[in-house]
Amino acid sequence: MQKFLAVGVFSLGLAGCMTPITPTQQAMPEISQVIEVPNKSKDQIFEDSKIWIAQSFKSANNVIQYADKSTGSIIGKGNIQYPCDGFIDCGAFGNDRVNFTIKIDTKDSKARVTINDVTRTNLTYVQGGVNNLGKEVPITILQHQQKIAVNLNNVIDQYKSAITSTKANENW
What we know:
The protein is α+β, with helices and mostly antiparallel strands. The chain starts with a helix and ends in a 7-residue tail after the last helix. The protein has a single domain, classed as Alpha-D-Glucose-1,6-Bisphosphate, Chain A, domain 4. Helix content is 36%, strand content 30%. The strands form two sheets. Strands 1, 2, 3, 4, 5 and 8 form a six-stranded antiparallel beta sheet that branches. It has a two-stranded antiparallel ribbon with strand order 6-7.
């Protein structure tokens, strides 16, 4: 009887430490930011943006899906590692990838970065004779959306620092 009581108290203690998850039917909201790029023309920002996308998102597929210099628009596909934290979170989602579409609109001295169409590709594995094929799924847990939004804002910050500090290296 004491063993059952001890197991019950221990289980209740573990359940009390668990963070409640909030499911949502809403797609992850679009993230957008306008970046001031002083003393750069639309064409310079456009070319520097293409270089940044190509260097930042390495993929077997074509990263830049669309680029039109006359309108100053670039659309690309990117992905980042799922931002897990903690033993259980990293055990469940640690090898997953977060996929997204990034659009950069350029004009003189400005660039607008928009990230949308955010999904998660889960890990492909075989466990206990069951084959779990990795597939692209929407992110339906609010806490996951919030963690991913922080990392996607970091991607925009990386773009901002790269595009505002890009110097032509003519001395090679």
